[in-house]
Specification:
Number of helices: 1
Number of domains: 1
Distance between the termini: 16 Å
Oligomer: single chain
Strand content: over 45%
Radius of gyration: 16 Å
Strand order of the largest sheet: 7-6-5-4-3-2-1-14-13
Mean pLDDT: 95
Length: 186
């Protein structure tokens, strides 16, 4: 078990206010995030992820609280790109997604890094189940990672936004800092 914390820096007027505390287990993670949304309102996000021995997501349970609104989302995957909701209903719009990317946390950027074992200079595209908090909506989004140095990866959103960021990682492949979005603390 290992605990890691990040401070969110993306919300104008609230940069550095908030904290995500992640507890990593052998095949999963539990997290609590306290932050301010883009509209300046505070919210809390709790999530629990389980993955198999190959690093493929099997279960994601999320709950967010913003003012009096509570949202929850449960996703199940077979690790081969087939997804279901909490009631066992198929989610065909997520077909082919192996990994999950939860906004806002840098933790889920580490999942494709761990699983892909890219060599320096190698680039790989991914279809991600992208979850947006605090509403907890989910959609498929294309992304790419390129290993540019021993402990640096270039993240690219391929959804037409043109967003890119160089992500330094520690010896365990966990994101250290995410420019303009998060910084590791502790």
């Amino acid at each position: 078990m290992r605990s890691v914390c990040w401070s969110p820096t993306w919300s104008p007027g609230h940069e550095g206010h908030g904290l995500e505390q992640v507890t990593l287990r052998e095949n999963g993670v539990d997290s609590v995030l306290l932050a301010f949304d883009e509209d300046g309102e505070p919210f809390r996000l709790n999530y629990h992820l389980d993955w198999d021995h190959r690093g493929r997501l099997l279960l994601a349970e999320l709950e967010s609280h913003k003012e009096t609104r509570v949202a929850s989302l449960t996703l199940r995957s077979d690790g081969e790109g087939n997804w279901q909701d909490a009631a066992g209903g198929a989610l065909p719009h997520l077909a082919g997604c192996i990994d999950i990317d939860i906004w806002p946390t840098p933790l889920t950027n580490s999942l494709p890094i761990w699983r892909s074992q890219l060599q320096i200079g190698e680039r790989r595209g991914f279809r991600m189940a992208w979850v947006a908090a605090p509403a907890l909506t989910v959609e498929a989004k294309p992304q790419a990672y390129t290993r540019v140095a021993e402990r640096v990866y270039l993240f690219e959103s391929l959804d037409g936004s043109g967003f890119k960021a160089e992500l330094p990682v520690d010896e365990n492949g966990l994101v250290i800092d995410y420019p303009e979005l998060f910084r590791r603390v502790g």
